[in-house]
From TrEMBL:
NCBIfam families: LptF_YjgP (TIGR04407). The gene is lptF. Its main location: membrane. It holds the Pfam family LptF_LptG. It is a multi-pass membrane protein. Belongs to the LptF/LptG family. Keywords: Cell inner membrane, Cell membrane, Membrane, Transmembrane, Transmembrane helix, Transport. This is Lipopolysaccharide export system permease protein LptF. InterPro entries: LptF, LptG/LptF_permease. Part of the ABC transporter complex LptBFG involved in the translocation of lipopolysaccharide (LPS) from the inner membrane to the outer membrane.
Length: 360
């Protein structure tokens, strides 16, 4: 590899990695808040926090990688213009077109990774996440109840179990306290087990026990009753997707699915790598600036362009799913014009600065 290519490739890579680290930290922070909210609401067992965070990050990687690549390249190229390095390179016959070779050395692998994650790894991580949550919701252990410990439920109740079966489906010697308004409810049971109604509603069925109800503060209005069976509602699990949900299907199955929702999901998976390539090509003309000129204005312009394209992709996918757009049109109306614009802008930018007969 020529020294110039090696130098430019190093600059592009370092800037891309720096942007990627910042975006990953910000994105994982937002995802962590969402996952913690599900844990606090009782929809997700705390034991699955890290695994769900990692799987959710994989699903967002195509968008994160594409944005990091565009921002990293724009910052690196704009720095070359700001520090007059591009002026020096142009004076010896090295124009913007000459940047394409080291740029593609970075862009092509990243686009390949984005395509792999968008078409295969992302849907796989979503299916894995859904399977883990489904299994957890059917286990009292993973649902947050552990033998020998007091467990606080999201509705303010407290549960204590003395023993539990190895598969986490049955428990013994149960104590539960709940407060509803100014009334206190204390329940004990000899045995119990969990069962489902519908896809997400979970209930704890207690057997052979006592229930005491009375005022939470001072007062003597207490009632005690013995019961053979008592049912207690647990926090609902996460919304469950059906097996034929297009979001859960592999990309190969979406190809032969005639449903508008499946076509919308297929287009949503195909578009990110195309947008990644288009915006990578647009970084060369967008980052052009005068020496000593601030680079952040153009970077903000590129970011806004990416944001608009992303929102158009989301809206276009919804229009396809709702039948407002023809299925054959897909999201090609977004990705192909952007690719054409990127190629045209790059060729025009290079032609302006590269003198005839110049050698790299």
């Amino acid at each position: 590899m020529p020294k110039l290519d090696r130098y430019l490739f190093s600059e592009f890579t370092q800037s891309f990695l720096a942007a990627l680290m910042v975006l990953l930290i910000v994105s994982m922070g937002g995802l962590l808040v969402d996952v913690l909210g599900d844990v606090a609401n009782g929809k997700l067992p705390a034991g699955l926090l890290l695994s769900q965070l990692g799987l959710a990050t994989v699903q967002f990687l195509p968008l994160i990688l594409s944005l990091a690549l565009m921002l990293g390249l724009m910052l690196a190229i704009a720095r070359l213009y700001r520090d007059s390095e591009m002026a020096v390179l142009t004076s010896i016959g090295v124009g913007p077109r000459r940047l394409l070779r080291p740029l593609l050395l970075l862009v092509v692998p990243i686009v390949a990774i984005v395509a792999t994650v968008s078409l295969w790894a992302g849907p796989l991580s979503l299916r894995t996440s859904q399977a883990m949550i489904d299994n957890a919701n059917r286990s009292l252990i993973l649902a947050g109840l552990e033998p020998g410990q007091f467990t606080v439920l999201s509705n303010g109740g407290v549960v204590y179990v003395n023993g539990m079966s190895s598969d986490g489906t049955r428990l013994s010697k149960v104590f539960m306290q709940r407060q509803q308004g100014d009334r206190l409810d204390v329940v004990t049971a000899k045995t119990g087990h969990m069962y489902f109604e519908g896809e997400t509603s979970r209930f704890l069925k207690l057997e052979d026990g006592y229930r005491v109800e009375g005022p939470a503060g001072d007062g003597k209005d207490y009632r005690m009753m013995r019961y053979a069976s008592n049912e207690v509602a647990l926090p609902d699990g996460s919304d469950k997707k059906t097996q034929d949900d297009p979001e859960l299907l592999p990309t190969s199955q979406l190809l032969g699915d005639a449903r508008p929702e499946a076509n919308a999901q297929l287009q949503t998976r195909i578009t990110p790598p195309l947008l990644c390539l288009a915006f990578a090509l647009l970084t060369l003309p967008l980052a052009r600036s005068a020496p000593r000129q601030s680079r952040y204005g153009r970077v903000m312009l590129g970011f806004l362009g990416y944001l608009v394209a992303f929102l158009m992709m989301i809206n276009g996918s919804q229009w396809l799913a709702n039948g407002k757009l023809p299925g054959a049109l897909g999201l090609w109306w977004l990705s192909l014009p952007l690719l054409a614009l990127g190629v045209w802008a790059y060729l025009r930018d290079g032609r302006l600065s590269r003198p005839k007969g110049a050698r790299a």
